[in-house]
């Protein structure tokens, strides 16, 4: 059984009475694609926040303008483990996708893969919003 934390419960770990799946823990403990890109024309940045919980998420995409495809993605998130995990997973989802496919990514896909508990679904919503804002920023730089 792959269980992490102070209490064995299914496929997750418990922190402060809240059950988290091992997928959340993995992306929180070993976040992928942390960092920022230099300011370039082919980089789109999405900066979003949730005033209710204080989470702030910056997600960037680097786009190959000839193929309209995301070459790379980075993030910096100030927030809870679920927000960090959502950002990390979102950057993994984005790599290699066309902008048309990337804009279709929904929070339910992120939440489903990470198995976020209902009280943490807003973290996946932030990730979806950050993706859309990054794409919007890229389009505005390219005059679209």
Automatic annotation (TrEMBL):
Single annotated GO MF: 2 iron, 2 sulfur cluster binding
Superkingdom: Eukaryota
GO BP: any one term: iron-sulfur cluster assembly
Assigned protein family: Belongs to the NifU family.
InterPro entries noted in UniProt: ISCU, NIF_FeS_clus_asmbl_NifU_N
GO cellular component: mitochondrion
SUPFAM superfamilies noted in UniProt: SufE/NifU (SSF82649)
Cofactor: [2Fe-2S] cluster
Metabolic or biological pathway, per its Swiss-Prot or TrEMBL entry: Cofactor biosynthesis; iron-sulfur cluster biosynthesis
Pfam families: NifU_N
Keyword Iron-sulfur in annotation: yes
Domain NIF system FeS cluster assembly NifU N-terminal residues, every copy: 20-142
Descriptive protein name: Iron sulfur cluster assembly protein 1
Keywords: 2Fe-2S, Iron, Iron-sulfur, Metal-binding
């Amino acid at each position: 059984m792959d269980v992490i934390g102070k209490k064995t419960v299914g496929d997750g770990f418990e922190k402060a009475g809240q059950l988290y799946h091992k997928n959340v823990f993995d992306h929180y403990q070993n976040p992928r694609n942390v960092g920022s890109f230099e300011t370039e024309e082919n980089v789109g940045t999405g900066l979003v926040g949730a005033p209710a919980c204080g989470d702030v998420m910056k997600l960037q995409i680097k786009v190959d303008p000839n193929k309209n495809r995301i070459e790379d993605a980075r993030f910096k998130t100030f927030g809870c483990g679920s927000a960090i995990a959502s950002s990390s997973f979102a950057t993994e989802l984005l790599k290699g996708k066309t902008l048309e496919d990337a804009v279709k990514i929904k929070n339910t896909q992120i939440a489903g893969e990470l198995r976020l508990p209902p009280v943490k679904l807003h973290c996946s919503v932030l990730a979806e919003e950050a993706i859309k804002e990054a794409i919007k920023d890229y389009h505005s730089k390219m005059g679209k």
